[in-house]
Structure formats: structure tokens, C-alpha cells
Specification:
By secondary structure, this protein is mainly beta. The chain has a domain at about 10-125: Jelly Rolls, CATH 2.60.120. Helices cover about 5% and strands about 40% of the residues. It is built from two helices and 13 strands. The strands form three sheets. The chain has a six-stranded antiparallel beta sheet with strand order 1-2-3-10-5-8. It has a four-stranded antiparallel beta sheet with strand order 4-11-12-13, with no helix packed on it. Strands 7-6-9 form a three-stranded antiparallel beta sheet, with no helix packed on it. Strand 6 (about 80-85) and strand 7 (about 85-90) form a beta hairpin. The longest helix has 4 residues, at about 25-30. It is globular and about 55 Å long. The termini are far apart.
Length: about 170
């Protein structure tokens, strides 16, 4: 069994993996380093990570989850939580609740401070998951698959727009 305890000082923050890093115009607004905790402590039904966001950036586009609930605990810095069209200041010690639901619950954390913003992110890990991105009109479908023979996690991920959907019978 893995040791079920880790100190956040021992969590290494790393850049996003290749292919998941923002590029082009998105790189001007989005950036973050993350340290994944769950696999190191043996978590099964919750995902935990430390996210570090540079000044003026956000880690992710505004989004809402249909299956998973998220919670954030601010560890360092200040910022702003955007929920739909409302904005709330956040600072060290704040707990942020982001329940599952429709676009009225779309959320985004922005570093509006003068130093790096760090937070502990906790999420249920329900699969499959449907995520909407109201600002861009996109959606994403993510499903965890059984690990490969060598133990590598496997995922199915599709990002698209509803207006570009294929007819169910197309190509049959």
C-alpha cells in the first residue's frame, strides 16, 4: 500500500504534458504548472492536485462539468473566481465550491494578483464526463479506459462543437 500522507512541500509542479499546453493566442491567457497528488497517496474516487498559475493567467478556460464536482482551496496569492457572469475575489484560505451542472455554473479561476496563485484542487472522478466551454461553444467528452498491459492509464477524449455534430447514420 502507498503511504496515504504527503506534504504539499513534497509535490513537484510540472508543466503541462506536450499536446496539452496552450499555444498561439491561448498561450497569452492560459498557463499553469500542476503537481498530481492522487496517484502518490492511493486515492481512488477523488483527484487531487496543486495548481500554480502565473500572474495574469488562468489554468483552464471557463467550463462546467456535468458529472464531477470540484473544490479549490487557495494556498498562495490572490485572484478572481468567475462563475458564469459573476466575479468573486479569492485569497489565501478561501474554499471554492464548483458543483456539477449547466453553463450557469461555468467557472474559472484567474490570477489577478501580484504573485503566483496556488491552490489545491479536489475533484470527484466520475467517468464518463461531459464538460462544456461556454465562451467558445465547445464541449468535451472524457472517459477513463482500463489501463494498458504495462499499466499506462488510457483515456478517450473528444472535443468538438455541437453544431459540427455528425448525423447518427452518416457513413453506415
Amino acid at each position: 500500500m502507498l503511504k496515504p500522507v504527503i506534504n504539499i512541500a513534497d509535490v513537484t509542479l510540472e508543466p503541462r504534458p506536450p499536446g496539452f499546453a496552450p499555444s498561439g493566442e491561448a498561450a497569452e491567457r492560459f498557463d499553469a504548472k500542476m503537481g498530481f497528488i492522487s496517484p502518490r497517496v492511493g486515492a481512488q474516487k477523488l483527484g487531487y492536485n496543486i495548481t500554480a498559475v502565473p500572474v495574469g493567467k488562468r489554468a483552464f478556460p471557463s467550463h462546467n462539468h456535468h458529472a464531477n464536482e470540484e473544490m479549490f482551496f487557495v494556498l498562495q496569492g490572490t485572484g478572481e473566481l468567475r462563475v458564469a457572469d459573476k466575479r468573486y475575489p479569492v485569497r489565501v484560505g478561501d474554499v471554492i465550491a464548483c458543483p456539477a451542472g449547466g453553463p450557469e455554473l461555468a467557472h474559472q479561476i484567474v490570477n489577478t494578483g501580484v504573485e503566483e496563485l496556488r491552490y489545491l484542487a479536489v475533484s470527484t472522478m466520475i467517468s464518463p464526463e461531459l464538460v462544456e466551454y461556454p465562451d467558445s461553444g465547445k464541449f468535451g467528452v472524457l472517459a477513463e479506459r482500463p489501463a494498458s498491459e504495462d499499466g499506462t492509464p488510457q483515456r478517450f477524449m473528444f472535443v468538438g462543437r455541437e453544431a459540427e455534430s455528425l448525423n447518427y447514420w452518416e457513413g453506415e
